[in-house]
Amino acid sequence: MEAGKEPKYTEWKDAEQMHSECVNWLLQLEFIKNEHRFIMDLIDKFFSDLGEMNHYRESSSEINELNENRLEVEALIEKMKKHNNELVILVDDEDQLEAEKAVRKDHQVLAENVEMAMRNFGDHKRKFFSILTNIMREQKHLFLIRKQ
Description:
By secondary structure, the protein is an all-alpha fold.
């Protein structure tokens, strides 16, 4: 074992617990999918301002990252639905030790992927709203200057 690394213990959950986690993850991923739609609507509304030279590099990078995250979330939703259907292997009366082990391993990998996708989305959302906030402040400032 490498120095500084602790062994990773796997918590064995029953099929009902795993199903509950899958349903919860699906709800969270669907919520993120809806947030992506909302952000894309904002992008459409503020596109001309996001495209200005002083915001272009930063905003285009974040828009690309958000799009990548959206695709990742959509793929995770499909994987999650498939995995949820595969949980039946754990409750059928057949002994399929290798298949059961694979389902449990998939569950662990999906848990890590969902956590990472949610964290990435939160980071990109914060950055995007920071850019958008700066644009709105600039617009307000320009409006006040023109009004004087």
